[in-house]
Design a protein that fits this description.
Layout (H helix, E strand, L loop, with lengths): L5 E2 L6 E2 L21 H11 L11 E7 L4 E5 L12 H11 L5 E8 L9 H10 L4 E6 L4 E5 H4 L10
Parallel strand pairs: 5-6
Antiparallel strand pairs: 1-2, 3-4, 3-5, 6-7
Bound molecules: zinc ion.
The site of zinc ion has 6 residues, from α3.
Amino acid sequence: MGRTGSIGSSSTRLTGQKLGFMQMPPTWTTDLPPDLKGLVEAAVRARSNAYAPYSRFPVGAAVRTRSLGIYHGCNIENGSYGATVCAERVAIFSAMAAGERDFDALALVAEHGAPLTPCGICRQVLFELAPTLRVVMANLTGGVTVAPIAQLLPAPFVLLES
Ligand SMILES: [Zn+2]
């Protein structure tokens, strides 16, 4: 097992496959729909703006509205680590601040062995703001996994009645 695509210490290292890519639900796909190619490219461009001096792990994201607007995000870290915000939240918060409310898809990308998956906090935020969102998880070498946010977070916390 190489270091590429793994996280954790050598004794607890998890690979992308052990994190779920071996047993993808049937609605997940490793084929990038043609209409989402540009969104991944936007996430790659956004990644160049990442502020990640602590992790040295720049991440880019881009969210698309149903009216085809695209908003960019990148991870923005802080010396007070808890103040760090992930790229996915920066993207969707930027869109929300511009008045957008209807989202179709979000792409995130990093240099990672397996297509990068959103953290738990981002899954919670994305689900509340866009429960039908398609999430495109990608790396810089063409690896892609596409999954609905509702399957990435099957039991979300919901405070408001819908
Ligand atoms: Zn996150």
